[in-house]
């Protein structure tokens, strides 16, 4: 019987809690491990340490193309990838350059401006991109003209490891623990502060539309999760939740913050009740990445396992081996929440289906 992807939400929630119905490894894979991925509609693009990217169709689990050629592509590891709304793909690499790939074929525009490895790139609906780098800067790019529109520098004296972006607001974190808040329209830093003892691993924004509007950051060295109130710029929560690097940081619609750490645990905090701890969940190995859906958290672990936890109780509902060669490094849930894609030390992505 053919399954319809337009599954009623109640049925889909139940299926996520019960477990996947099928999984498939996509071939051909990369020549080395996978470090990043992006999903838009049926298009999955993965970036690898083999210097290339590959595109697959996850509606029928077919291979489309390799984004690498003699004259086009990266000369080092691919570190980040994102889709433009028109179907083009932008990738970033340790070679300090961005590649803007055509929708079809194997051709890209090489966009240069950074002086160090690029850690992350994001693009918005207006074809404006933001990238962060080990050169201590962030760059704003006009992808229509393929030119650099602005370069944000000053607060960061070390590698910028992560950033988040909403409209004209960009918040970035660096290797020395500094968080900087930027207005990209004026190209200036509004505020900067050293929040963490050592590197910032994750930065996200949270708003419930009312009184809770926070910049949430996590530490790579200190295991601390920090909340800065965006209205007062004050630090309202700053606690060590983990004894290892925090590799995963996400929020859900229930006002919960979920963290995943190298100390083999996940923690859940309830923002609405004044940062009350809700659950302490134990994984089978170091947690390298997490995804949240409904009241569930999916964790990708160092032993290749993918585990699904219920946030309120902390119960592990199920788990399975997704990687046979090592770490699950990155995961994403597709737009209609019917599939989870897991990538890592295996050279091929795994598509896990819930319908």
TrEMBL record:
SUPFAM superfamilies referenced in this protein's UniProt entry, alphabetically: WD40 repeat-like
SMART domains per the UniProt record, alphabetical: WD40
UniProt keywords, alphabetically: Repeat, WD repeat
Gene3D superfamilies, per database record: YVTN repeat-like/Quinoprotein amine dehydrogenase (2.130.10.10)
InterPro entries assigned: WD40/YVTN_repeat-like_dom_sf, WD40_repeat_CS, WD40_repeat_dom_sf, WD40_rpt
WD repeat coordinates: 111-151, 153-192
Pfam families in the record: WD40 (PF00400)
Name of protein: WD domain, G-beta repeat protein
């Amino acid at each position: 019987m053919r399954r319809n992807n337009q599954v009623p939400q109640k049925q889909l929630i139940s299926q996520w809690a019960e477990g996947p119905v099928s999984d498939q490894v996509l071939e051909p894979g990369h020549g080395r491990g996978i470090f990043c991925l992006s999903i838009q509609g049926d298009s999955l693009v993965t970036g690898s340490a083999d210097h290339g990217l590959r595109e697959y169709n996850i509606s029928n689990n077919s291979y489309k193309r390799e984004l690498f050629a003699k004259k086009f592509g990266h000369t080092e590891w691919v570190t980040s990838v994102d889709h433009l709304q028109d179907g083009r793909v932008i990738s970033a690499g340790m070679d300090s350059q961005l590649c803007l790939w055509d929708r079809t074929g194997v051709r890209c525009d090489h966009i240069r401006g950074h002086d160090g490895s690029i850690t992350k790139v994001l693009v918005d609906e207006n074809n404006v991109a933001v990238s962060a780098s080990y050169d201590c800067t962030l760059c704003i790019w006009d992808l229509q003209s393929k030119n650099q529109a602005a370069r944000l520098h000053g607060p960061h004296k070390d590698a910028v490891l992560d950033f988040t972006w909403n409209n004209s607001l960009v918040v970035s974190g660096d290797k020395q623990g500094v968080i900087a808040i930027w207005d990209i329209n004026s190209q200036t830093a509004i505020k900067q502060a050293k929040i963490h003892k050592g590197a910032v691993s994750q930065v996200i924004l949270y708003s419930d539309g009312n009184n809770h509007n926070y910049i949430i950051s996590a530490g790579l060295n200190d295991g601390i999760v920090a909340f800065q109130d965006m209205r007062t710029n004050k630090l309202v929560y700053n606690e060590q939740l983990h004894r290892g690097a925090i590799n995963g940081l996400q929020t859900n619609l229930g006002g919960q913050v979920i963290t995943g750490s190298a100390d083999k645990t996940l923690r859940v905090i309830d923002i609405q009740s004044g940062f009350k701890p809700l659950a302490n969940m134990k994984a089978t190995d170091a947690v390298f990445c997490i995804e949240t859906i409904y009241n569930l958290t999916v964790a990708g672990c160092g032993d290749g396992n993918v585990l699904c936890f219920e946030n309120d109780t902390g119960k592990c509902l199920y788990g399975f081996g997704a990687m046979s060669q090592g770490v699950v490094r990155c995961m994403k849930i597709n737009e209609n929440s019917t599939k989870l894609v897991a990538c890592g030390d295996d050279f091929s992505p795994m598509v896990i289906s819930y319908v």
